[in-house]
Amino acid sequence: xxxxxxxxxxxxxxxxxxxxxxxxxxxxxxxxxxxxxxxxxxxxxxxxxxxxxxxxxxxxxxxxxxxxxxxxxxxxxxxxxxxxxxxxxxxxxxxxxxxxxxxxxxxxxxxxxxxxxxxxxxxxxxxxxxxxxxxxxxxxxxxxxxxxxxxxxxxxxxxxxxxxxxxxxxxxxxxxxxxxxxxxxxxxxxxxxxxxxxxxxxxxxxxxxxxxxxxxxxxxxxxxxxxxxxxxxxxxxxxxxxxxxxxxxxxxxxxxxxxxxxxxxxxxxxxxxxxxxxxxxxxxxxxxxxxxxxxxxxxxxxxxxxxxxxxxxxxxxxxxxxxxxxxxxxxxxxxxxxxxxxxxxxxxxxxxxxxxxxxxxxxxxxxxxxxxxxxxxxxxxxxxxxxxxxxxxxxxxxxxxxxxxxxxxxxxxxxxxxxxxxxxxxxxxxxxxxxxxxxxxxxxxxxxxxxxxxxxxxxxxxxxxxxxxxxxxxxxxxxxxxxxxxxxxxxxxxxxxxxxxxxxxxxxxxxxxxxxxxxxxxxxxxxxxxxxxxxxxxxxxxxxxxxxxxxxxxxxxxxxxxxxxxxxxxxxxxxxxxxxxxxxxxxxxxxxxxxxxxxxxxxx
Length: 604
What we know:
Elements: H1 2-21, H2 44-55, H3 66-75, H4 80-89, H5 94-107, H6 112-130, H7 133-137, H8 148-154, H9 157-169, H10 174-185, H11 202-216, H12 221-235, H13 239-253, H14 260-273, H15 280-287, H16 294-306, H17 311-321, H18 335-345, H19 354-369, E1 371-374, E2 380-384, H20 388-402, H21 406-418, H22 423-437, H23 446-449, H24 452-465, H25 470-481, H26 489-508, H27 512-522, H28 528-541, H29 548-558, H30 561-568, H31 573-584, H32 590-596
Antiparallel strand pairs: 1-2
């Protein structure tokens, strides 16, 4: 009969639901309450009305709290036949239709994983387009407990990703912020580090920040720069999160072995400054006790805000740091302050008043060489100036040589190299080389270009002596390569090849991925012979095992159409061996393997 069919239908749907949920270790029959579970009333008529309205909802039989509602319906003297009619009449079976569609897709030769990606992708799109934050927040109405399905979603990376995406769009949604809190409690702090929503709950933000700091202090230079973008985004979400982060870093930096946290603090400050947030610079000095030294605070703040040095500010700083009890040297060691002094001292086009030049030298040498020990209240305990005079002489000597004419440069090379051991001097030489190689006027006469090999030789020595200056060297080489000097085609090609050779040396020194990332930007635009030269040189110097990042960067470089054509014209056993390795590597996508196939030994 129709009654028996409907009864069978209701029973089968309940069995399906319980068997599905059993995969998560909890049958639906144990669920008490849910997202929209109506409050119970002692009045039977009200209970009956509430129950009938509940069962009239579409697919009410699939709700998590259907069993408690059935119990309440029966206790209110409800009739079983009426219950079955309501459940069956309002059954739409959307879940079963989705399951049936998945079965059909599998029959069409798609794999289980492909079907899952299609279905999940479509569900995510529907949810993203139709998500209603007000309706989502109703799961917390009437004191209801969080739904079971939320914890189930949190365990799946696909659904966590959807929660992250929705939380960035709907920042004030209570349910999503609560979900972020639960995700953090479940141990996925590293995933939510880049979310602005993470700062909504202090507990979440604090956990994420702690893990992020622990991660940052163990990264190399390239990894640090990559991770700092997400860190800046998270910490600068609001003024209070930025201030809290800087205070925490300041306290940690004053602990034993905490000096490397000062770098993280300055990188964070630079990122926030670039967003145009006011008072960031002044806040930085106030947090570092610079307020106790008004002249220092005023001078440094003025220099940073104007991005220039002035005789007035330089004299004030010099007077402070020549006192018997000078201010802490850490104020001078701000990266941008040192960069400003170096830029002015080693720029051939810049003229500094001779009466003040010695003060410039003194401040740079002081920042680079002086060691001090201070007590908890910042009073000076010990001041070590043993390296100050040597550093000062090296700076003066090299700066004078850098301002000599190109004819005199050859005779000065040995003196320049003798002082490369001082990092601050090497930094000054890099500034001097940059000023020349990126100046269009430098290439106007042929005798000036004869200095280029000397410049590149100095760069090569510096990259080996001072690994921390390798990022500066990369920036210099990139800017020089992107110059379009007024040279004939052959001379320009020779110059660019020399710059590429030094980029390869930079890779040998350890800066591999940043170089490849930059070359990838150039590859569609520059002469194919240069890319061919670069790729063959790299494949000849590298050896297995290769990291997945390196393999994919190299493959992306090789499969550029113009590069592919250029490489087909040569035979190189190292290149062939590398491509053969990529064809067998699981980290290379099928599409990229297909593009590399013409180089395979089997295809030839």
